[in-house]
Design goal:
four-stranded antiparallel beta sheet; alpha/beta; Rossmann fold
């Protein structure tokens, strides 16, 4: 066995998710909740409602915290004020409405995805599939996302020198971060959706990553099945990032031990896998953009993550979990 495994997101969410932030919003969850991570806590969290109308037949509603990207928000602020400051308004709530402009720069349906790219004053975001999960975010004034992509960017520091594969390129956030931090890297990215790649080149600066940096680094984009036998490198990959989802769920192939053994064979000695295992409950159904979970948590414990179960069987004692 040549590699070690880092499993990201060692839990299953019981509600539909938007992967915007690693801090859970407060308040009543409506259609969507947030991907959470106990390692990241946002202070002064304010519960807000986020409403996106991306498709004529779909309205997405979620709760978000103050540290997440906002598109259109409504906030309620409780003010107890003294009688001198707020005469005749004691014990009353003052409602304040905050709005941040956003624009849907492109929205198209491909063979594999409902693709939407949103522009806000602070960021650009890629939303995919029937759940409209955020699969990528690029901030205009900073590199770090405060989400799991930052964890992926640490992989080059702990693997041998050599090419790194990104299985499930998404919007290219991981590739952007890696080449910014490690400009000499050779990245090999796989994405099955050709139309998505075209939109990323046009709106999320993917084409910039396909040009060699001064230090010689580059992202080579491959369109095709990320789990096919053709995904390989002479001498093996130094690292493999696995971020494969469909309909908000981890691909079912990743719940099989054999899949991980095959990926492990594509690593060079001392290479490593880094995996995003988070996602909606694998038993859930997605109907009209709304996730309907079939399982529930017990005392706040997430339902069994079958991807991590497969990883643990494939690599006993060698699976590290960031949750």
């Amino acid at each position: 066995m040549s590699g070690y495994v880092l499993g990201l997101g060692a839990f299953q969410l019981l509600h539909p998710i938007i992967n915007i932030s690693l801090s859970q919003g407060k308040g009543n969850v409506s259609s969507f909740s947030l991907l959470t991570n106990s390692n990241y806590v946002c202070s002064n969290s304010i519960s807000k409602q986020l409403v996106l109308s991306l498709w004529s037949s779909t309205t997405i509603t979620t709760t978000s915290s103050s540290c997440t990207p906002k598109l259109k928000t409504q906030a309620t602020k409780s003010q107890a004020g003294s009688s001198s400051s707020w005469p005749q308004q004691q014990d009353q709530e003052e409602e304040e409405e905050e709005e941040e402009d956003f624009q849907v720069v492109t929205a198209i349906r491909s063979q594999f995805n409902d693709i939407s790219i949103l522009d806000t004053p602070n960021s650009r975001m890629l939303l995919l599939d029937a759940t409209h999960n955020v699969h990528s975010i690029l901030y205009k004034d900073q590199k770090w996302t405060g989400s799991y992509w930052d964890e992926f960017a640490s992989l080059p520091a702990i693997v041998p020198k050599g090419p790194i594969a990104i299985l499930g390129l998404g919007g290219g956030t991981t590739a952007h971060l890696m080449l910014d931090l490690w400009p000499a890297l050779q990245l090999e990215g796989w994405e099955i959706d050709e139309i998505l790649i075209e939109k990323l080149r046009e709106y999320l600066a993917l084409s910039d990553l396909e040009k060699r940096t001064v230090a010689g680094g580059i992202l080579n984009v491959h369109i095709g099945d990320a789990l096919s036998q053709s995904v390989n490198a002479s001498g093996g990959f130094a690292g493999i990032v696995v971020d494969l989802f469909s309909g908000g769920k981890v691909l079912p192939q990743l719940q099989k031990v054999q899949t991980w053994l095959e990926l492990n064979d594509r690593l060079m000695p001392n290479g490593r896998l880094m995996v995003n295992c988070g996602g909606i409950d694998e038993a859930a159904d997605v109907i009209d953009g709304v996730v309907h979970p079939k399982n529930s948590s017990i005392d706040g414990t997430w339902v069994q993550n079958y991807t991590i179960k497969a990883l643990s069987k494939a690599f006993p004692g060698k699976v590290g979990i960031l949750s």
